[in-house]
Design brief:
This protein is α/β, with parallel strands linked by helices. The chain has ten helices and eight strands.
Length: 280
């Protein structure tokens, strides 16, 4: 009779990542290293914006209780020294992610580092703003997460396949947070949509013939057939675009016609409208 071999439980480890800033660089390094240990369960806990010695000590004490390893990325010399001191006092494994490199560069350059947390993000703020805008736009595509719509810098409305998503993504690369919301003929818009700041709301429209082409392309991409469906039926599509335009006009929402236009041109028209409305 063969003996059953019991599978050993994977080893586990908790890694505390502590920073005086947002901790993005330390967290990324921690996740990069953790990926090298596929057979272990590694939990990463991030402690950003730590600005006092008292807070450093408290986190280190918690790490001791949990049996965690600490990785800190302080650029403030006082907090970095506090972390080194507390690690020795508590007999805690703590890795200084920034200190050795800063010291080596300082010696080579003959300069003292500024010791200002968050400086990298300040210097490259426009880059991080664009990333944030893209994240927001992807999360609020096609009517998703309506609770977040008030945070949008621009809200695009229009029928399905009118081109809201590609225009939204283009604008997000420029740094704008975009929410796009489909309007469906015969179905009332979601409650709260028209309580937004209407200066930031723009409708998109398109010629029915071009809309049908977009929808047929979508159907082919999904492996669907059915030219007789209401989704691509010329009469139904004409009625749908007409109803959506009437709704937008009743609400006083400006409309950009995207028929035959490249995304860049439509985006420029939207931005001109928004800038004009915000000035009034």
């Amino acid at each position: 009779m063969e003996e059953k071999q019991s599978q050993a439980e994977p080893q586990s480890l908790t890694l505390y990542v502590i920073s005086g800033g947002v901790g993005a660089s330390g967290e990324q390094l921690a996740r990069t290293v953790s990926a090298q240990f596929q057979e272990a369960k590694i939990g990463i806990e991030l402690f950003p914006k730590v600005s006092t010695r008292k807070k450093v000590r408290q986190i280190f004490q918690d790490a001791v209780k949990e049996g965690a390893i600490v990785a800190h990325s302080f650029v403030d010399p006082k907090l970095r020294q506090a972390a080194i001191d507390y690690a020795g006092e508590l007999n805690l494994t703590a890795i200084d992610l920034m200190g050795p490199l800063m010291e080596a560069m300082g010696r080579k350059l003959g300069q003292e580092p500024l010791g200002m947390p968050g400086l990298y993000r300040q210097l490259f703020r426009s880059y991080f703003d664009r990333i944030s805008a893209m994240d927001y736009t992807l999360a609020h595509d096609d009517g998703k997460h309506p609770e977040g719509w008030p945070e949008a810098e621009i809200v695009l409305l229009g029928a399905s396949r009118v081109g809201k998503t590609p225009v939204s993504l283009y604008l997000s690369v420029l740094g704008w947070k975009i929410a796009n919301v489909p309007l469906v003929a015969g179905i009332p818009p979601r409650e709260g949509l028209f309580r937004l700041d209407m200066r930031r709301v723009v409708g998109l429209t398109i010629a029915p013939s071009e809309l049908i082409e977009h929808r047929e392309h979508r159907q082919r991409h999904l492996g669907l057939t059915g030219k007789d469906s209401e989704y691509v039926n010329p009469v139904k599509v004409f009625e749908e675009t007409e109803e959506v335009e009437k709704l937008l006009k009743r609400r006083g929402i400006p409309i950009v016609d995207v028929t035959g236009k490249p995304i860049e041109t439509s985006a420029e028209e939207i931005l001109r409208l928004i800038h004009r409305k915000l000035r009034t």
